[in-house]
């Protein structure tokens, strides 16, 4: 049962990593297209900066859980590498639980931010006047997936 849950969460993190890679590709295509249009026709895609920033936020938020799953986050192991195995597992459990609590905290407040942007129909102060709740959605989604991955990491400590 726990193995299936861990596997499901890991696959979800993989899915969001692919989605993250898609956003990075779109950013590259958008910027290169803008450069080509500026060079050849002296025209610009007016939304390049704005939408590249939105997609970069999605790129980061959607890749955080995968990075955690793959052990890609920076870890300072000066202390924990010298601890006995049992104590090291307890330390990993405690730090991962704290990270989980922080992730849930960020999830909640990012949901509040998106909700307020939706209710007040807040728009970007740019040419496109994008409804801000749409690009802001990547934050609660990213924190939710990160929270699930942290649960998976906590379960792996006891495996």
Automatic annotation (TrEMBL):
What are the alphabetically sorted keywords of the record?
A: Cell inner membrane, Cell membrane, Membrane, Transmembrane, Transmembrane helix, Transport
One Gene Ontology term of the biological-process aspect is: C4-dicarboxylate transport
- Molecular function terms from GO: transmembrane transporter activity
What family name appears in the similarity comment? Belongs to the TRAP transporter small permease family.
Q: Which residues form the Tripartite ATP-independent periplasmic transporters DctQ component domain?
A: 27-158
User: Which interval of the chain is the signal sequence?
Assistant: none
Please provide, in alphabetical order, the Gene Ontology terms of the cellular component aspect for this entry.
plasma membrane
Q: Which PANTHER family match?
A: 2,3-DIKETO-L-GULONATE TRAP TRANSPORTER SMALL PERMEASE PROTEIN YIAM, TRAP TRANSPORTER SMALL PERMEASE PROTEIN
- Membrane topology recorded in Swiss-Prot or TrEMBL: Multi-pass membrane protein
State if Membrane is listed as a keyword. yes
What name does UniProt use for this protein? Tripartite ATP-independent periplasmic transporter DctQ component
Q: Where in the cell is it found?
A: Cell inner membrane
Q: Give TM segment ranges.
A: 12-39, 90-118, 130-151
